[in-house]
Amino acid sequence: MNYGFVKVAAAVPSTKVGNPKYNVEQIESLILQANSQGVEIVVFPELSLTSYSCGDLFFQQLLLDEAEMGLINLMNFMRSMNIITIVGMPISYQGGLMNCAAVVQKGRILGLVPKTFVPNYKEFYERRWFLGANEVPEGHVLVCGQQVLLSPHQIFKTLSCRFGIELCEDVWAPIPPSSTLALRGAELIFNLSASTDAVGKDEYLERLIAQQSARLLSGYVYASCGFGESTQDVVFSGKAFIYENGRLLNKGERYSLDEQLVTSEIDVEYLRAERRRNTTFNANAALLKDVVMHTSEAASVMPEKQELKRNVDPHPFIPADDAARDQRCEDIFAIQSEGLAKRIMHTNSETVVLGISGGLDSTLALLVCARTFDRLGKSRRGIIGITMPGFGTSDRTYTNAIRLMQQMGITIREISIKDACLQHFKDIGHDPDVHDVTYENSQARERTQILMDAANQMNGLVVGTGDLSELALGWATYNGDHMSMYAVNASVPKTLIQHIVRWAAYHTEEETTRDTLLDILGTPISPELIPADEQGNIKQKTEDLVGPYELHDFFLYHTVRNGFHPRKVYLLAVKAFANIYSEETIKHWISIFYRRFFNQQFKRSCMPDGPKVGSIALSPRGDWRMPSDASSEAWLEECKTL
User: Fold this and answer.
1) Which residues are known catalytic residues?
2) What is the per-residue pLDDT across 77-94, written as a single tens digit (0 to 9) for each?
3) DSSP letters for 435-452
């Protein structure tokens, strides 16, 4: 698939113990399904040609011959297909038996990967039949009339990706083979498994695979055998998982009596971006430079473009699960408070000063200040909240600002900026009836001057209220609300601020405070620099001017975190917001995003200190270092082609 997505599948066929002919028929049926769905690579369970639970039948030459004949039939069946299939089978080698994965495409065996760590569990003593990969030297073996490399050190290469293979017990080892494979270039790992079931084992296995996938910055596709295996002493539940960098993309149904084909698209471009950013991964890879790895190339046929089926989260900064979202809010709140506490103690500030507008950003900043003062054992009277009504201040925001400051028990100051701005307009010769950028920015800079001077008066620290989304878009007045002495919201996106304020509302015991916070959440986002309408309602709505913040936060995440092309960010946005925004709307705002993101870098180049709370921040001292005069031409040209 285009855009770096590789469609994969974990297949769980029904099986008959010791009957390769039947098993191959079931495998072929699932291959047909996978091929029709555009799957590029499909993996089947361990020893899927014979079934896993054959016991001492593995010592029967007839079973081994039938397995090889089954593989021949399977390759003939697949000659006209480009799909890569990974099946399990026993292989006679070096005087013993190897539990192998056979990688097959277009009538050719690309390689045989033996199991490295063969278990000796009481319930299934596999070492009775099979040797481990480390017990014999790698080499070539004659299988189905082909000389095939048998080695655990193999990476298979397609036009779309590089992948490696391990089998069942391998992933449970202290250092799984997949660790070496990933560090030597494998982006996807396929695991052919036959995991017996037990109480609690499924949950542990999922955590294990999730962690291995995250640690390796890889995709991980796991298929384990199910219905049809022997239940003489153990039960196999047919587990199937597809993970991407620790995140579950899809899973099968346990204890299903039917065959299953679990599919999803793994974003290999995203995995590559993560690896480029992770210097620890690359440093670890350097330690394995002497490990000899064999590369086999598959047929180079680019898969057809098809519709993206996987789910795309429209709000990547916000956990979908309620409990996880609450924990995220608590963690961010704690980080903000911790950072501010250190800055207050370091500067020996007696007070903190911040502008309270009745909007979301200043509300969160005030909540952080209150938490910080409580932790430091300081009186909240040392928090100086200044409301500065201007030409566009509405009754609703003014009332909420006053009410919230009263409920929080802080010191309240009200300083109107109207007269000062009118005098300034007179001084510079600006007509106050002309509501242009000078009219707006003069108000923002006047407010910042008041805050800075008030902080000087009271040995205070100006706490900034601007957020990550505003910094990305440059939606701040240079040396106005752009500037502070410590910016507690600097790495919190606007969409997440809404959730933190809502979380705070429902975690306060004061009902009046909760009501005020909820009303602030319901207020349109606005800088309120343009006079209200005749009914006193907010006339200047930010999202009408720069676009919906949920779109811009989405663009920001995939641009900064993943480094995706605009065309891929657009593709993902169309999928994520299919029932919310039209394609034309997304095209319009994505161009605005890139234009503003590049043009407004100069504001970020001199932004104040502030705590990093997540994986994305735009501080020029750490996370984002871009020249202020970088050209956006290539990005905007690509936007025109969407």
Assistant:
1) 46, 115, 168
2) 999 999 999 999 999 999
3) -SHHHHHHHHHHHHHHHH
